[in-house]
Amino acid sequence: MKVCxxxxxxxxxxxxGGLAEHLGWSPFRMRVIWVLATIxxxxxxxxxxxxxxxxMPKAPPAPAFDPPPLQPWKKAT
Length: 77
Description:
- The chain is mainly α and 77 residues long.
- It has a domain at 15-55.
- It is built from three helices and no strands.
- The chain has helices at 15-23, 27-40, 44-55.
- The two termini are 35 Å apart.
């Protein structure tokens, strides 16, 4: 599975949302960890975030809903 920036869980660029989706975490938890790591590393997290913003590809858009073909011989369930 390739790490991509999230299209659904994004606040700025979707970096934390994409990492959270990849790791199976909640986006809120990832953002809190990222902010704490940024504060405790003398704001190096900002530089890493900007680098990932440009290096991580965007996630492909979700496919549009395609309804099933009508089958008049079947009853709706």
